[in-house]
Amino acid sequence: MTVRLSRIQLALFFILLCPVNIIGLWWAVGSPLVMDPNSICRKAKRLAGKQAELCQTQPEIVSEVAKGARLGVRECQYQFRYRRWNCTSHNKYFGKILQQDIRETAFVYAITAAGVTHAVTQACSMGDLLQCGCEATRNRAPPRPPSSSSSGDGVKWEWGGCGDDVEFGYEKSKQFMDAKRRRGKSDIRTLIDLHNNEAGRLAVKLYMRTECKCHGLSGSCTLRTCWKKMPHFREVGDRLLERFNGASKVMGGNDGKTLIPVGQNIKPPDKQDLIYSDESPDFCLANRKTGSLGTRGRMCNSTAMDISGCDLLCCERGYREETVVFEENCLCRFHWCCVVQCKKCLVRKELSLCH
Ligand SMILES: *[C@@H]1O[C@H](CO)[C@@H](O)[C@H](O)[C@H]1NC(C)=O
Ligand SMILES: *[C@@H]1O[C@H](CO)[C@@H](O)[C@H](O)[C@H]1NC(C)=O
C-alpha cells in the first residue's frame, strides 16, 4: 500500500518529468506510517513552491492530504484487484505508471485527487482542523425535500446538523494536487493530468447526498433538518472505475494548449470523464519500461469469463491449481461482556495461479 521511490528516481522525476506534483505527494506519503506533517513537509519543501507553502502555513492539512492519498491507493487496489495491472504500489513500477499517459495513470491521478478531497472534507466535519468545520448553511437556499417523499405535506425543512464542507476539501485538493512545477509551461501531459485530477474531485463534489432527520412529537414529523454528506469513498471508486472503462483518448492540438478527442464522431469528453493519450501495454509480462509486473503467479478465477478469469488474466499462458490449507477463526461466540471467543478451524482452498 505504501509507495517508496528511490532518491535518484525521484530526483529525475522532479527535474525532468513531473509536470504536476502528484509524484511529490507520493514520495512524501511514501514511507510507511509517516503521518507527521513535519516529515512530509521536509521532503515536499525541496520539491515545489506551492506545496512547500502549504506545508509551512498549514501542516495539519498536509497530513490530511497524505491520508487522502493513502485512501486513494487503497481504493485503487480494491478496484483493480482482479485486473492484470492491480495498482500494486511496488515502488519502481508504480512510478513508471505515473510517468505515462495511459488509462491507468488517469485513474491513479483521479482517485488520488478524490481521496484528498474526501479526507480533508471529512477532517473538517470531524472537527480535526481549525481552518474549517461543518458547512455554513446561512446563505443557502432552503433544502428541497428528497424526491422520495411527495412534497406538499406541510413538513417544514431546514438545513441543520453537520453538513460536509466539500468545497473546502475540493479547494485544498486543488491547491495541493494541481500545483505546477513550472508556471506557464503548458504541455499536453500537464493538461491531461489536471483534467483527471478535476474528474476525481468532481466524483466527490457532484454526488453529495442529502440526509435528513425528523423532529416532532412521538413519530410525527413536523420539522425535518437536512444536511449534505459526501458519497462513501467506495462509491467514488466505483464511479471512477466506470469512467476508466469509458475513458476517452485525446491528442494535443497544434497550439499545444488544447486537447482534441481522437477518432471520428466522438463526443468530446466532459469534465467528469477520464482522458489519456497513449494505449496501455497489455501488462502480461514484467517490463520495467512500462511499469508492468506481469501476471505470473497471480490468482485467477478458472470459471469467470471476464478479466479476472484465468484465460485473460494469465494471457493464455495457462495456470496451475494449488490447494492451500490455512487456519481461520470460526464458531465465534460473544460472551457478555465483552469478549469474543473463537475456535481455530483448518480451511482448505483451491487456488488457480497463472503460469
Ligand atoms: C498484484 O500483482 C502483483 C504482481 O503481479 C502481485 O505480486 C500482488 O500479490 C498482487 N496483489 C494483489 C492484492 O493481488
Ligand atoms: C469466480 O467466477 C465466478 C463466475 O463469474 C463467480 O461466481 C465466483 O464468485 C468467482 N470466484 C471468486 C473467488 O471470485
TrEMBL record:
One of its GO terms (molecular function) is frizzled binding. This is Protein Wnt. Keywords: Developmental protein, Disulfide bond, Extracellular matrix, Glycoprotein, Lipoprotein, Membrane, Secreted, Transmembrane, Transmembrane helix, Wnt signaling pathway. Its main location: secreted. The keyword Transmembrane applies. Pfam families: wnt. The chain crosses the membrane at residues 12-29. The keyword Glycoprotein applies. One of its GO terms (cellular component) is extracellular space. Belongs to the Wnt family. Ligand for members of the frizzled family of seven transmembrane receptors.
